[in-house]
TrEMBL record:
Keywords: Lyase, Porphyrin biosynthesis. It comes from Rhodoblastus acidophilus. The keyword Lyase applies. Catalyzes cyclization of the linear tetrapyrrole, hydroxymethylbilane, to the macrocyclic uroporphyrinogen III. Its EC number is 4.2.1.75. It catalyses: hydroxymethylbilane = uroporphyrinogen III + H2O. GO terms for molecular function: uroporphyrinogen-III synthase activity. GO terms for biological process: protoporphyrinogen IX biosynthetic process; uroporphyrinogen III biosynthetic process. It comes from the Bacteria. This is Uroporphyrinogen-III synthase. InterPro entries: 4pyrrol_syn_uPrphyn_synt_sf, 4pyrrol_synth_uPrphyn_synth, UROS/Hem4. Belongs to the uroporphyrinogen-III synthase family. Pathway: Porphyrin-containing compound metabolism; protoporphyrin-IX biosynthesis; coproporphyrinogen-III from 5-aminolevulinate: step 3/4. The keyword Lyase applies.
Length: 222
């Protein structure tokens, strides 16, 4: 299959390599450009560092506090950067559940992107935890895709697209034009699939777990 990968370039290149190993052709078509904000971190000490994306950990130096994070990819990035990983959950809701099982309240440094759902900080703050939120990166939508991507879509030369977040899916659909209803849409989670509500249901496929291995297995079964 020829597949659009809509992630930021560095992440898309890794995914493209995995798709190539499976016999597919990937066309890298980011819908957002990611850049660090340069925001300074507050003074500690902290009881815990929290991250919901590997990208956030790329923008900070290791801190002398355990790391709690969403996803094994984020955990791996944390270990590589020198953090001590104390807790991992598959999504922000379950990470909050896990953390709030602990007795007492804590001071948390939450490193995140500017565009995100506020569920995690809201739940921790509502339970009396002190959450120091620092937005360490921001993602800006691209105005258009390269000409070769647009022409391939118009010519019917692309079979499907991989979506990794509700926001990126919502940004990608208009860029595809009328071709979007002809493509297979492979979604990382039900929340991502909901952003593709305008696509015929038989063209939308949802990973069994919100990890890339499960997303790629959808393509293999297709």
């Amino acid at each position: 299959m020829r597949l659009l990968v809509t992630r930021p370039v560095d992440e898309a290149e890794r995914t493209a390599g995995r798709l190539s190993a499976l016999g597919h052709e990937a066309l890298i078509a980011p819908v957002m450009e990611v850049a660090p904000t340069g925001a300074a971190l507050p003074d500690g000490p902290f009881d815990l560092v929290v991250a919901t994306s590997a990208r956030a950990l790329h923008e900070v130096a290791p801190i002398a506090a355990p790391l709690a994070c969403v996803g094994e990819k984020t955990a791996a990035a944390g270990r590589k950067a020198g953090f001590s990983v104390a807790a991992v959950a598959p999504d922000a809701e379950r990470l909050a559940d896990l953390l709030l099982k602990e007795s007492g309240t804590k001071r948390v440094l939450y490193v995140a992107g500017r565009e995100r759902r506020a569920d995690l900080e809201t739940r921790l703050g509502g339970a009396g935890w002190r959450v120091d939120l620092v937005e360490v990166y921001a993602a800006r939508p691209v105005a258009a895709w390269p000409k070769k991507i647009v022409e391939a879509l118009a010519a019917g030369e692309i079979d499907g697209v991989l979506h990794y977040s509700p926001r990126s899916a919502a940004l990608a659909l208009p860029l595809m034009g009328e071709a979007r209803t002809r493509l297979d849409h492979f979604c990382l989670s039900p929340a991502v699939a909901r952003a593709c509500a305008e696509i015929p249901a038989d063209r939308v496929f949802v990973a069994s777990q919100p990890i890339e291995d499960c997303l790629l297995s959808l393509i293999e079964r297709r």
